[in-house]
Amino acid sequence: MSRSKQSITFPVDLVYTWVDGNDPAWRAKRNAYMPQREADKPVPNHLNDARWRDNNELVYSLRSVERYAPWVNKIYIVTDGQCPSWLNRAHPKIEIVDHSDILPADALPVFSSHAIESCIYRIPGLAEHFVYGNDDTFFGAPTRREDFFNADGTPIVRVKGARFKREKARKGGNYYRVLYRMQSLVEEQWGRLVCHEPHHNFDAYRKSDFERCVATLPAEWDATAHSRFRTNDDMQRCYVSYYAVAAAGATLRKVNRYNRISNPIAFVRALVTGRYAADSRWIKLHLKSYDKDFDKYNPLMFCMNDNAQTSDADCHRMVEFLKRKFPNKSEFEL
To answer: 29, 33, 53: which is closest to 228 by C-alpha?
Structure first.
């Protein structure tokens, strides 16, 4: 994997968004605002309970930080009046950020990740350079700041290798429609089409890039912050990544199974053995063996994304897998 020739010394923070969707008080608040839906139609993906389900993934994500990303400066956990019961809030790296600290008062409460993510750059004390992840993203191997930023401070923007097929925006749901809109807006405003999907894992950002993007389309970002649930008109954080590539000097890095293979001999060995070294891997929860998929791709970071098709048995298997990967309690736990 190519790295900056010069080592990075500037601080890099880590931001998570987290919610305990099992909390009865929180569920009652969400349900009071939940849009009405037709009884004979399936629940839209962006309103499915899986979007807010907590399987204690954050415990293991933080263990992966301690093990593989000790360079992280501060860790900000953005929540809605909640705090994990197991979290060591006295740890000097840990900061709990409430929605009221970053979102407009008249927008609360919100239940949309688009709304919350649109305001993460407002976190008090947040460093210029930060990495953002959901609680279902994990570091899978030793990392450095240089895996996320170049020496000049520009971010490394990871995307899926395959080009985004625009028919997905017509046939897909909210996610693909919003993604298509973000790509189109960046092409229109900044002169370059970045037609790849985000890799859905830890992503690198500069606070100043967020500020520039919000200042460019203030009404659209404000409307997103005020949307309690996802809409097709939302802004999405991938706009900031696409902008960074199109107009701010960021490096576009397409994720594939060979990302971290740096010489021809290792490449041939990977082809023969079927054991690769990817930057990022989304491990699908319906797979029979998570270990087999992880060992095949040896990812720098990985995601285990819960969705509407995930069964209780899948969630249980996922937690058992994470316990095996990260068995040791971290300093971030009580």
So the answer is: 33
Q: According to the model, what pLDDT value does residue 50 have?
A: 56
Residue with the two structure tokens 């593989």 = 68
Q: Is 12-257 a domain of CATH 2.120.10?
A: no
Angle at 194 between CA 18 and CA 249, to 5 degrees: 85
Look at strands 301-303 and 137-139 and give their pairing: antiparallel
Give me 58's structure tokens.
Answer: 């954050």
Q: How long a stretch of residues is the chain? A: 334
Kindly state the tokens that stand for 117.
């993510």
Helix (H) or strand (E) holding 162: strand 156-163
pLDDT at position 39 is 57
* Residue at 127: amino acid letter: A
Which residues are 120's β-sheet partners?
none
Q: Does the global pTM surpass 0.85?
A: yes
Are 259 and 302 in contact by the 8 Å Cβ rule? The answer is no
Transcribe 23-38 into DSSP letters: -HHHHHHHHHHPPP--
- Is the CB of residue 11 less than 8 Å from the CB of residue 127? yes
Domain boundaries, the chain: 12-257
* Whether residue 66 has pLDDT greater than 90: yes
Q: How far apart are CA 190 and CA 92, in angstroms?
A: 40
Q: Report percent pLDDT > 70 for the chain.
A: 93
Structure tokens at 320: 């058992």
Contact between 252 and 160 under an 8 Å Cβ cutoff? The reply is no
pLDDT tens-digit map of 84-102: 999 999 999 999 999 999 9
Q: Is the pLDDT of residue 48 over 60?
A: no
The whole-number pLDDT of residue 3 equals 42
**Region at 298 (left for phi over 0; alpha for psi -120 to 50; beta for the rest):** left
Please confirm whether the linkage preceding 198 is cis (ω < 30° from 0).
Answer: no
Rounded Cα–Cα distance for residues 262 and 18 (Å): 36
Report which of 12, 217, 21, 213 is spatially closest to residue 132, judged by C-alpha positions. Answer: 12
Q: Give the pLDDT confidence of 223-281 residue by residue, as tens digits.
A: 999 999 999 999 999 999 999 999 999 999 999 999 999 899 999 999 999 999 999 99
